[in-house]
Every structure is written in C-alpha cells, then in structure tokens.
Amino acid sequence: MARPIHGTPRLASGPLAVSQRHYRFVQSFPSGSRGWAVSKIASTMSDGSTRPIEIGMVSGWSYSESVFDPLRRELPNVSTVAYDWSCFAAQWLDDAPQGARPEPDAWLGWSLGGALLLEALRRGRIAPERLILLNATPRFLDAPGWRGVPEPEWRALRRAVVRDPEPAVSAFRRRFELPNPVDGSSRRAELADVSGLDWLARLDLRSWLQEVATPVECWLAPDDPLVPADWPSRLALSLQVRCHRLPGRGHASWWHRPAELAARLSDR
C-alpha cells in the first residue's frame, strides 16, 4: 500500500494524453471582481498598517518547489513561499498534519499542486482569500462524459514508476515536453512517489466546484495533453470560478514564459 501523500507545447497522443477541444476563455475579470494584482498586493493589519500579501505555491508531481523559481523571479514585489507537493500534503492534508506553518493569504498550484489545493480547501484545511490553479483539473482520469487521462495509461505510468522512478519520470517529462530543471534535490525519489499519482486518480472535485465560495482562478492552456482546456464548459461552476488562458500552449507553458504569466496576473 502506498504511503499517504505529502504535500508542452506539442499535443501528445497515445499514453497519458487526452484529446483537445476549443474552449472560449474569459479574457478579463467581470466588473467589480477582485483581481490578483501581484505588484500591489497588501493586507490591512489591525493597526491600520499594511503588509505584502504572501502567496504560497505548490508544485506538480515529481517536481520540487524550485520549479517556481522562474515565476518567483518575475514577482519581485510579492512575498512568496513555495512547497513541493509532498511537503504541502504532509502539512495540510495528512490525517495528522505535521505542524503546518501559518497559511499564506493566497495559494497558487500547478497540475497536481492545484488539485491538492482544491482538496485542502474542500476539507477546510486552508482558507485563502484566493486560489490560483495552473493547468489543473478537478478530475484527472476520464469518466463517462468527462475527458481525462485513460485509467489504463495512468496504471502503466504507475507501474513504470514503481519499477524504476528516475527513468519513468524522465520519459514522462520528455513525452509531454515538460521542464526538466536541474535543482539538485536530494528528494527526487520522494517527489516521484506513486502516492502523488494515487492522489490524481482518487480526487474528483467536480461537484464541489459548483458550490465553492472562495474565489478560484483557473489558468488553462490550449493543446495541454494532460488537462483538457475545455473542462470548465462541462460543469455548472460556482460564480466564484473564473477561467483564463495561459500564455503559450501545453502543460507547462507558464514555466517557459514566466514573465508573460506574471504580467498577466499583475494586470488583473
């Protein structure tokens, strides 16, 4: 039994790929909505003073927190703290959370990191002012009327990771043109733990997104081989959920073009 989980531009085909369909994105927030103005974020304290709002970031499966380094460099006026997915889950999702630090004011999660944030919000483990999801979906696997990764392909990846995680992760990243940063992490085996894949298979938050009360921003990209960009059109989403187009295409375009994402977030 797996241990409890801790906390590219070309369209791929075959294993672990989903077909794509055009989806019309919201290009701006509706009048009166609160944007995520990263260059101006501040919170009013009880004494009337202000402080920068802190943004927590959660990585995708197999990645350390350093995957956010390019984006964090483009947000020099914002206080940020980054977690790999396993550390986040250990601190906010385990049955006996491991002494979570004070929660950031807002959270941003990529891929699995976004799904874990949604689950933590559903459980009441986090209570941010805003949630920002990059290339994330409320249900990773396909289902009747729902396009996602076929379960047999997910199982094939899981078996490959159990056999030998490093080559399995390398092949996974090459296939989907995902970033392969050199971060020197000594925790590569833990970051590629199959429990992360089990989270992806287990979570189904579609119905919950119909009633979520926290503002949620979904940033999606066309030709994402793992997360269909049109999934919001298949749900009756809460009015608190807004969808936006990421610059570029694929499952990690934001990583390749962090300045564009930072600028677009700053414009909101």
Backbone CA Rg:
18 Å
Which homologous superfamily in CATH is the superfamily? Alpha/Beta hydrolase fold, catalytic domain
Please count the beta strands (DSSP E, at least 2 residues each): 8
Number of helices: 9
Describe, in plain words, how this protein is organized in 3D.
Helix 3 (112-122) links the parallel strand 5 (106-110) and strand 6 (130-134). This protein has 268 residues and is an alpha/beta fold. The strands form two sheets. The chain has a six-stranded parallel beta sheet. A two-stranded antiparallel sheet has the order 1-2. Residues 1-15 and 17-42 have low confidence and may be disordered. Helix 2 (85-92) packs parallel to helix 3 and helix 4 (151-163) packs across helix 5. It has a single domain, classed as Alpha/Beta hydrolase fold, catalytic domain (Rossmann fold, 3-Layer(aba) Sandwich). The protein contains nine helices and eight strands.
Concise description?
The protein contains 9 helices and 8 strands. With 268 residues, the protein is of the alpha/beta class.
